[in-house]
Amino acid sequence: MKSSQKIQFISQILDDLYPDPPIPLNHTSDYTLLIAVLLSAQCTDDRVNLITPALFKKADTPQKMSKLSLQEITHFIKSCTYFNTKAANILALSQILVDEHQGQVPNTFEALEALPGVGHKTASVVMSQAFHIPAFPVDTHIHRLAARFGLSDGSTVEQTEKDLKKVFPKNTWNKRHLQIIYFGRNYCKARGHQIEKCPICKELYRYS
Predict the structure, then answer these.
(1) Looking at residue 91, which CATH number applies to its domain?
(2) DSSP string over 32-59
(3) Do residue 50 and residue 118 come from a single domain?
(4) What are the C-alpha distances in Å from 183 to residues 26, 59, 77, 104?
(5) Which domain holds residue 164?
(6) In this structure, are 107 and 147 located in the same domain?
(7) Distance of alpha carbon 77 from its chain centroid, rounded?
(8) Could you say which of 103, 129, 155 is where a domain stops?
(9) How far apart (Å, rounded) are the C-alpha atoms in residues 66 and 73?
(10) 73 and 155 assigned to the same domain
């Protein structure tokens, strides 16, 4: 299967299965999305969605969050991985948003990545889903599937991101990364992967 045919085939499968993929993290604003994505680092989305309702009921704006103590924030997120570090980052970035950004989440990569605990992937999710600016966040599912589908041989998520941006049209990036996440969870798992039950792999491997 030619590279262009492969991309067209993969895109069609993803569009058929997930025509309008929702953001898997529950949120009500740009700010709550930012916090939810920060919490999701090395933690499952399901766990984050269990944690955030009580946290956001207490503080759903940077103004409210910055008035909480570190202990209070820690109490709400203690079942999340690296909760001490994440609590400190949430408190610090909330104060920065109040002091330097008029309480608003900035809409540039530079400003987002300057916030405590916000790396490139977190910034990419916020840019794509909150501000609808084309980005291609790469998580472990996407990194794994990009290699499995032969779309990237990058040893790092940075290289995988560059490779995927080259093969998928820019106007599809924001939905494509969500589609691949859902596909990886539902059809193309890391463990117990059954090629014959995977709509993409069963076709790709026929031509390998």
Answers:
(1) 1.10.340.30
(2) HHHHHHHHTTTS-HHHHHHHHHHHHHH-
(3) yes
(4) 19, 33, 28, 33
(5) 3-21+136-207
(6) no
(7) 19
(8) 129
(9) 10
(10) no
Q: Which residues are catalytic?
A: 121, 139
Give me the count of residues in the chain: 208
Q: pLDDT tens digits for 142-170? A: 999 999 999 998 789 999 999 999 999 99
Instruction: Report the distance separating Cα 191 and Cα 105, nearest Å.
Output: 37
Q: Are 161 and 152 in contact (CB under 8 A)?
A: no
pTM, two decimals, is 0.92
Domain final residue, candidates 95, 129, 163: 129
**pLDDT tens digits, one per residue of 47-99:** 999 999 999 999 999 999 999 999 999 999 999 999 999 999 999 999 999 99
Strands (DSSP E) found in 22-176 = none
Residue 169 to residues 7, 9, 64, 172, Cα–Cα distance (Å): 10, 14, 40, 6
